[in-house]
Amino acid sequence: MDEADNTGGAEGHRVDLLFPEQRLVFEHAQGTATLQDVPNAPAGFRRYKEIQAEGGNAAMLVIPNSTLIRAAKTYVVDPGVAMQGAPYSAAVASYGVNPFHVQDVILTHMHLDHVGALVEFPGRRVHVHRIELEAPYSTFQRSLLETCDVVELDGDEGEIEPGLRWMLTPGHADGLITLLVDTDDGLVAIASDCIGPLPEYFETMSLPEDFGGREVLLEQWRRIRELKPALIIPGHYPPFRLDGDGAR
Question: What is the set of domains in the chain, with CATH numbers?
Answer without folding.
Answer: 3-21+64-234 (3.60.15.10), 22-63 (no CATH)
